[in-house]
Backbone:
């Protein structure tokens, strides 16, 4: 699994690739927490899931944890471009009713910018 | 229809083995030709959930073992994931959605296993471990698939 982070203004863009499970979730958590700790101005995470090939509830949990951290300070998390497997797990778990999910990055940016 | 077959694997209850377990079972399950790719993905997911539960909650101290037994009988795949750890005091409560003992978790493992398998059985006695058995068959049997393609 790989986690790439890139701040754009107040938004932290996080690109994940590979499989997000119990074993790889700590790596994702550490990469995102490091950025959030270093940049208190970040108020949103734009999570790009297009290259995530597998996710389970451990992976969802670590995403939910970051969402909770941002929400506690009025921020938000938007997930974009999930594969069918990832989308299915988001829907089954109910996470899709908590975190906004958009099919494309463009749709996600439209939501992030309030268009 | 697939012949009878079975395989048993045992490994330490550590996070590094979760991926191995789901890939191994998915590989075995693909002997049932009529499973779709989506169903194989479902099998990976339910194995990942069951094995992760053991890694997270199965044992009070390191060194515990996960045993995964999987069998094919006709077009039915049976997966049993078991440990010999502390067990679950209240299985019904543990199976409830969003039951979790940790803030960074969903508590949806059993809900996902239940939704994506045809049958889920969980048995446990405190101090004697947990046994999770899941059964799954292709939605469309091999003969139906053949008729559809004809």
Residues:
């Amino acid at each position: 699994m790989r986690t790439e982070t890139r701040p754009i203004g107040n938004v932290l863009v996080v690109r994940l690739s590979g499989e997000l499970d119990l074993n790889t979730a700590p790596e994702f958590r550490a990469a995102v927490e490091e950025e959030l700790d270093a940049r208190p101005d970040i108020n949103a995470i734009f999570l790009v899931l297009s290259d995530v090939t597998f996710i389970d509830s451990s992976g969802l949990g670590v995403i939910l944890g970051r969402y909770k951290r941002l929400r506690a300070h009025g921020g938000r998390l938007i997930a974009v471009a999930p594969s069918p497997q990832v989308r299915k797990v988001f829907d089954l778990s109910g996470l899709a009713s908590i975190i906004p999910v958009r099919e494309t990055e463009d749709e996600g940016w439209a939501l992030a910018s309030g268009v | 229809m697939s012949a009878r077959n079975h395989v048993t694997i045992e490994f330490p209850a550590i996070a590094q083995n979760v991926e191995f377990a789901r890939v191994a079972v998915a590989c075995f399950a693909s002997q049932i030709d009529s499973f779709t790719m989506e169903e194989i993905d479902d099998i990976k997911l339910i194995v990942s959930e069951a094995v992760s539960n053991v890694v997270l909650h199965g044992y009070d101290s390191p060194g515990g073992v996960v045993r995964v037994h999987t069998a094919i009988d006709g077009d039915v795949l049976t997966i049993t994931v078991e440990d010999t750890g502390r067990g679950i005091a209240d299985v019904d409560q543990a199976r409830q959605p969003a039951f979790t003992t940790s803030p960074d978790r969903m508590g949806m493992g059993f809900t996902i296993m239940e939704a994506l398998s045809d049958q889920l059985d969980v048995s446990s006695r405190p101090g004697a471990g947990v046994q999770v058995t899941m059964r799954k068959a292709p939605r469309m049997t091999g003969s139906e698939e053949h008729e559809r393609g004809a």
Remarks:
- The helical segments of chain A are 25-38, 57-71, 84-93, 105-112.
- Chain A has four helices and five strands.
- Chain A touches chain B through 22 residues (CB under 8 Å).
